[in-house]
Design goal:
mainly alpha; MetI-like fold; 10 helices
Amino acid sequence: MKAAKRNLPALAFLLALVMLWQLGAMELGAAYILPTPAQIAEKLWQLRVPLFTVHLPATLSVTAVGLGISLVLGLLLAVCMDASPLVRKVLYPLVVASQTIPTTAIAPLFVLWFGYGLWSKVLVTILITFFPIAITVYDGFRSASQEMAELLQSYGAGVGAVFWKVKIPCALPYFFSALKMAIPMSVIGAAIGEWLGAQRGLGYFSRRMMTQLDGAGVFAPIVLLSAAAMLCVALVSLLERRVLRWRDGG
């Protein structure tokens, strides 16, 4: 009940946007360019079997694998940069430079190198999500109270104890923020990879519908993709509230 009240303004605003979209699309009268939400919902129902049994699982598989690898690599890099100034000086500029690479330019190369299978899309997802995870968690480690660390050390605590009792609690809110940012970005990365070269997936399906000038068919997998990402972010937010009860005094 509290969650519903908290999200009521966002839901009302979303409803207003959908109504404006419906009216604008009806006024335009060109469904191949801008279909109405009702037409998209109808198309979703018509295509529910291939979308939910073939293309959605394919996209979620790419997203899960890419995000999982990004989490492992990003957390390891954040820990290493926090532990060693030399590692930070060497790797931090390279991590930043990786974000200057145009994803749409390098994604076709991944397809050329790795084919239309899973890994070409996974690499696109990793390229997009690795940076925010590593940098945000690293900032979380750096936010730890130096005074608290020095107090523990004065009582004989070692580096490991300071890490687990001071730095990890400080970095947890940053970790969840990074995860909530990375989930939509990983979905976008998977869709980009599928759009540029795939045999299944929501990005691939949307591109195929575009070649048929089916506006509702183009939007249907996009809406489904957005809904899946929002559901995942909501689940992470729920987990965050349970794990970080201390932050709200709960």
